[in-house]
Design a protein that fits this description.
The protein is α+β, with helices and mostly antiparallel strands. 47% of the residues lie in helices and 17% in strands. The longest helix is centred in the middle third of the chain and has 28 residues, at 47-74.
């Protein structure tokens, strides 16, 4: 697998679109369960009803997240800023030995030789969105500690460029 194929596979909009479709199907099923369990009465002691409502809320949150990614991918521009599907190289805490390169996407690879990814919804991803080369941002880690990240390079619109180069071959 070439690097181009790898990035398209791990960052492809089609993966997010497929997930979105599956989520909508599952949401319809769970919504039907909620109605069925609600009709059983006694909502206070109706565990299946409450579990279904929680699952429905979880699905709705994920649909919103994936929809945001799909919408952002459709609006990819090469304006020199970090966006979803950008290939980004960053330096952590001003340490030249702590440099990483990754694609900003929710999709994850399954193999150790694939390119790294970072979700745009993660603390790091949110901090990087809209940054330009040499911008520095501080964000809070899940542990509560702060980390500083400096953008070293950006390849914006990578998804679209790779797809265009594959169709031109």
């Amino acid at each position: 697998m070439t690097t181009a194929e790898l990035i398209v596979t791990t960052g492809g909009v089609s993966e997010e679109a497929s997930e979105l479709s599956a989520l909508h199907i599952r949401r319809t099923e769970v919504a039907a369960d909620v109605i069925e369990f609600r009709n059983m009465g006694d909502l206070e002691n109706n565990d299946p009803y409450h579990r279904s409502r929680e699952e429905l809320s979880s699905i709705d949150r994920r649909i919103a997240e994936v929809q945001e990614l799909v919408t952002a991918a459709a609006e990819v521009t090469d304006d020199g800023t970090v966006r979803p599907f950008s290939l980004v190289t960053v330096m952590f805490d001003r340490d030249p030995d702590d440099v990483e390169t990754f694609v900003l996407t929710a999709a994850t690879g399954n193999s150790a030789d694939e390119i790294a990814t970072c979700s745009p919804l993660s603390p790091l991803g949110r901090a990087l969105m809209g940054c330009r080369v040499e911008d520095e941002r501080t964000y809070v880690l899940p542990t509560g500690a702060e980390s500083t990240v400096t953008v070293l390079s950006i390849a914006a619109g990578l998804e679209r460029r790779l797809l265009e180069s594959r169709t031109a071959e």
